[in-house]
Specification:
Length: 423
């Protein structure tokens, strides 16, 4: 065994021992967050529990970082100056479903990774951080933290996400590949004029017809858009009773694409469809930025597509073996869709990597009650602990070997061009 391999094995033993000691507390944290689901920017219970746990484990904790009440940053310092590797925690829930995206497990893995890496810091330079990033589900919490400079001193960001029945760490990352869809959303509100629908409908302007024409126009538009585009919406307002012409109607839409430049074209096409619906019905159109939520300064960004990093992926894949985390082979065939995450915005600024891990023995749909149920299973917690060890060891590699960090930065720079869709 080489000196480097022996050192890596020794670090793995230290990290795994630390996680074994923290296992019960980490599982309790996951279950506690799961039992108290909180929506965007309201995650006070989760942020308090997580930051208090990190303090108990010897981290220096800053609360409310970036001007976001439910964000935090926990820092541990190594043996001397060096790079900073951050583990990103998410802990917000979905309306009406609870933790149907398993963010309680992301929080558990990030805190666990911090605890594991901290145990090995005595012989390593640099810093590790656990950054609590609220409001991933449409709120754009990471966008606010980026704007506030919370990531200014971070060299690499690592995170995770529960998937379905597979644990995936793809190491073949061709140029132009994206690991998510860029996303932005708008509220299309139509203002009409009410009237009695039976006695004098001719005096009314039906705002609901504007919304219906919008849906119809978008369906017509789909055949002229790239295969990676996703447009999906819901009617939030459409009138109250059928015998009154609706004077107000509105729909919320998310628009997604593999790259932000083409997404901007899609946004403009949908805007023209909405304007046409307003012209056809006589209603007045109001387009309101909605996803991610505009910042207090009024900025309305978008969720960027995730920029992959092959170097970080290879490190994580190798460390998964040391962590005894079983990794599955990626399914074959083209991938036409994908989720969206504000982790993508971080990945467009600094090298970033994430592990998707199994929480179920069988396929289950995302954003569902099935995920919420699986997110507290023994399998989910066992894999979250394995992910924590994998991320901790990856951070240790980056702190121990400056050449690896240089390679990750070079890979990051090589993927700076606009993402293309791979067939």
């Amino acid at each position: 065994m080489s000196v480097g391999a022996a050192a890596a094995r020794a670090r793995a033993d230290v990290v795994r021992a630390a996680l074994d000691g923290a296992r019960d507390e980490l599982v309790r944290l996951s279950r506690e967050i799961h039992a108290h689901p909180e929506l965007n920017f309201e995650e006070r219970h989760a942020a308090t529990a997580l930051s208090a746990a990190l303090e108990r484990w010897g981290f220096a904790v800053e609360r409310g970082v970036g001007g976001v009440e439910t964000a935090f940053r926990a820092t541990a310092t190594g043996s001397g100056p060096g790079p900073t590797v951050a583990f990103l925690a998410e802990y917000d829930a979905l309306p009406g479903i609870g933790h149907g995206c398993g963010h309680n497990l992301i929080a558990m893995s990030a805190v666990g990774a911090g605890i594991g890496a901290k145990a090995a810091l005595r012989d390593l330079p640099g810093r590790i951080q656990v950054i609590g990033t609220p409001a991933e589900e449409g709120g754009g919490g990471k966008l606010r933290l980026l704007e506030a400079g919370v990531f200014a001193d971070v060299d690499v960001a690592l995170s995770s996400h529960p998937g379905s029945h597979l644990t995936l760490i793809p190491t073949r990352v061709e140029p132009g590949t994206s690991w998510s869809l860029a996303m932005i959303g708008f509220r299309y509100a139509f203002h009409g004029r009410s009237a009695h629908a039976a006695m004098n409908p001719q005096d009314g302007i039906n705002a609901l017809n504007g919304v219906l024409r919008l849906f119809s126009g978008i369906d017509t538009l789909r055949q002229h858009l790239r295969e990676d585009v996703r447009i999906h919406g819901v009617i939030t307002d459409g009138g109250t009773v059928p015998n009154v012409v609706p004077e107000f109607a509105a729909a919320n839409f998310m628009l997604r694409s593999r790259d932000r430049e083409y997404l901007r074209e899609v946004v403009e096409k949908v805007r023209r469809v909405a304007e046409g619906a307003a012209l056809e019905t006589g209603a007045r159109l109001e387009v309101i930025p909605y996803y991610p939520f505009p910042t207090p300064a009024g900025t309305h960004g978008m969720y960027e597509n995730v920029r992959p990093n092959a170097v970080l992926a290879r490190l994580a894949r190798a460390n998964a073996d040391l962590a005894d985390l079983r990794v599955d082979e990626p399914p074959g065939g083209p991938r036409s869709g994908g989720a969206s995450t504000d982790f993508g915005n971080v990945s467009q600024v600094i090298p970033a990597g994430s592990v998707s891990f199994a929480i179920s023995e069988r396929p289950i749909p995302g954003h569902s009650t099935a995920v919420a149920a699986a997110a507290t299973s023994d399998l989910a917690h066992a894999n979250a602990l394995g992910v924590a060890a994998t991320l901790a060891l990856t951070a240790c590699d980056l702190l121990a070997d400056p050449a690896l960090l240089a390679e990750a930065r070079a890979d990051f720079a090589s993927r700076a061009t606009t993402t293309e869709v791979k067939p």
